[in-house]
Design brief:
Order of helices and strands: HHHHHHH
Strand content: under 5%
CATH class of the largest domain: Mainly Alpha
CATH topology of the largest domain: Serine Threonine Protein Phosphatase 5, Tetratricopeptide repeat
Number of strands: 0
CATH architecture of the largest domain: Alpha Horseshoe
Shape: elongated
CATH superfamily of the largest domain: Tetratricopeptide repeat domain
Radius of gyration: 29 Å
Length: 260
């Protein structure tokens, strides 16, 4: 046998030996797809895009980095499942049970979470942009506020506004959420709503004797109003300059007529 062929054969053998065996994983995957019963299954990295998993039993399953994008998991039991890094983009989780599930870095964008049980779940690092039907009991006002700040920093203002309002619906006197709304509305060029929500934040921070919050909110409010006044002044100057231009044009026409 030629040396080059021997070398290639050796390399292939080494690679084959170093690769983890996938038979068990494939067995678990087939079990899930055939019976929808896969308690504590090893489904790491499985491709389950658009899979029909209505009512599936995935209690304690290992779904790390699995792709469940647009899968139908209506009423599925994912209690204690590990969904770290998994994609549930656009998935239907309505009525599903995710109690004590691990959702570290899980992609839940555009997912449906109507009546989804999320007791004991930490959603702090999950991607929630466009998520639909998430229960207000799924998080605290502070958590919704943090998500609002994160989405606002990304420029995703609709998602940020939705998170801030969820925080306010839980606690109508949660001042940071009103300030967050003020900031987002200002960035979105809605002066009226920016002022209104920031004024509420100033009032609440004052009532709650939060000096830092009150000072920060008041300073932001002052800057909003100053910027708005400057915009008005600029528009008036531009309008005045336009009127002067029209007047000079009229004078020019008149002078031409007088010279004829």
């Amino acid at each position: 046998m030629k040396p080059t062929i021997v070398g290639i054969f050796t390399l292939i053998s080494a690679i084959a030996i170093s690769l983890p065996l996938q038979a068990e994983n494939l067995s678990h995957l087939n079990k899930l797809l055939l019976s929808k019963q896969c308690n504590k299954c090893d489904l790491r990295g499985s491709g389950l895009v658009m899979a029909d998993l209505v009512g599936a039993n995935l209690t304690g399953a290992n779904l790390v980095n699995a792709n469940l994008s647009q899968a139908n998991l209506t009423g599925a039991n994912l209690t204690g499942a590990n969904l770290t890094g998994a994609s549930l983009y656009g998935a239907n989780l309505s009525g599903a049970i995710l109690t004590d599930a691990i959702l570290t870095g899980t992609d839940l964008r555009n997912a449906y979470l109507l009546n989804t049980q999320l007791d004991g779940v930490d959603l702090d690092t999950a991607l929630l942009d466009g998520v639909k039907g998430i229960s207000q009991q799924a998080a605290t006002p502070a958590q919704f506020h943090r998500w609002g700040v994160r989405e606002g920093n990304r420029g995703n203002y609709p998602a940020a506004i939705a998170h801030y309002y969820r925080a306010i619906n839980i606690d109508p006197e949660f001042a940071p959420a009103y300030l967050g709304l003020g900031v987002v509305y200002y960035k979105n060029d809605d002066h009226t709503k920016a002022v209104k929500n920031t004024e509420i934040a100033v009032k609440l921070f004052e009532e709650q004797e939060n000096e830092l919050g009150q000072e920060s909110s008041q300073k932001f409010l002052d800057n909003i109003q100053l910027a708005h006044q400057l915009e008005i002044d600029i528009r008036e100057r531009e309008r005045g300059a336009a009127n002067v231009g029209k007047f000079l044009g009229g004078v020019g026409s008149l002078l031409l007529q007088l010279m004829l």
